[in-house]
């Protein structure tokens, strides 16, 4: 179980602050290379920025625009590796890029960029780009606006529909390799002795018990919160300049496309996605300078109206209104602080590993990083940790290492056999495969051992009670929010899992030792957690007024 605390005399090679995708990836890589690792996070794994992305595994096409060829190469390589190591979670994702009169990026420039990208991605993609004429667009995507349309291009990228599960599997693999992960444990301070950082002071959120994790090296991988970790203890320039990105989720609408459409917003030239996702549609994202509370990041009315207006513009039949938004998702990208930037898109999406020596020996801070390149970031961090420790370089193992859900010699054969032999409906079986991969077998085992766990807890998805039990017993979930939003994912349905919440809490009462009082409290806490999504089902009036400017 991830939720435990370290003894007062704990001494490890590496203490990692932050159990987002980057912190977990660092733990996995370092543990695979033989280091003793402890990860600490004040909340659940992947509960911050990692769960607010566009759910795309970018090959790096948009970084060509800034001539960041290093990041493009890295993104292509990491996308290719994820196709192989996490085939249940990452899939080929075609997207249409229409070109309209007045776009800041004319069609010929886009086609040139795609041609260059295809050369760089040779043999490491799932198809080459191709031009699409106005006539073909009209035939294949008839509801797309043809006003000023100059043509289009079809590009192959990748999607991770459940980025939350990517984090869970990094957790599982890091633990399998010997790392310990302490969730719901707050870092109250760094242990600073002279010019040495010797680890962390921590507090268990549930019990209030305080202890220390003494470590040879401490890695600050807290994403947008990196400055907060250092504040008052480590003298440093400002490191994080994260921008706010918001998405909205709607039901299928008139004229909705069956593929991702990647287009330029008329109002500010920002690239926007409209894409099908789990039977619904996601629109996003914004890219705003953000100086507000990092713990209260909420999509503003202005952002929602901006995304709806741009979607309505290219899909004239849509006529989407704010009342159509099921919920919104907002987060802050962990970008490097860059002074005087007028266009946030120009801020680097790469990552750097800052060594605070000689002023603070033993402390590293990770600046930047993105979903696609989490593994490469972790490899760089572990290389630096070994160098600082004075140890010989050790070969990185994560380039070839499959995720736990892909731990089979033939993924396609496993998937076919699972669907054929599963006692569940085809829809339920396919859902289990896309969430758990080969670990879907474990769900069926639990349901077979106790028939009450074969009970459906969510009518929309067909999720089983066994998944609730597995989430807590085997995947580190602590709260109802952990279960619904970051394990079994029914919390990202139309009503954000509110109808399923009581049934899931009841499973926890019957099988996981919760009492009725805790079950009621968890349901109430879950509803409170949802308010930052502004879900329609709660008819919330929450609005964010902390943006420095509107989109």
From TrEMBL:
Please give the Gene3D superfamilies that the UniProt record associates with this protein: Alpha-glycerophosphate oxidase, cap domain, D-Amino Acid Oxidase, subunit A, domain 2, FAD/NAD(P)-binding domain
The cofactors named for this UniProt entry are: FAD
A Pfam family that this protein carries is DAO
User: One GO molecular-function annotation for this sequence?
Assistant: oxidoreductase activity
Domain Alpha-glycerophosphate oxidase C-terminal: from-to ranges: 396-518
* Enzyme class per UniProt: oxidoreductase
Domain FAD dependent oxidoreductase: residue ranges: 13-374
Q: What are the protein's UniProt keywords?
A: FAD, Flavoprotein, Oxidoreductase
Q: Which domain of life is it from?
A: Bacteria
Q: Which InterPro entries match?
A: DAO_C, DAO_C_sf, FAD-dep_OxRdtase, FAD/NAD-bd_sf, G3P_DH_FAD-dep
EC number(s) recorded for this UniProt protein: 1.-.-.-
- Name the family: Belongs to the FAD-dependent glycerol-3-phosphate dehydrogenase family.
Q: What is this protein called?
A: Glycerol-3-phosphate dehydrogenase/oxidase
Q: What broad taxonomic lineage does this protein's source fall under?
A: Bacteria, Bacillati, Actinomycetota, Actinomycetes, Streptosporangiales
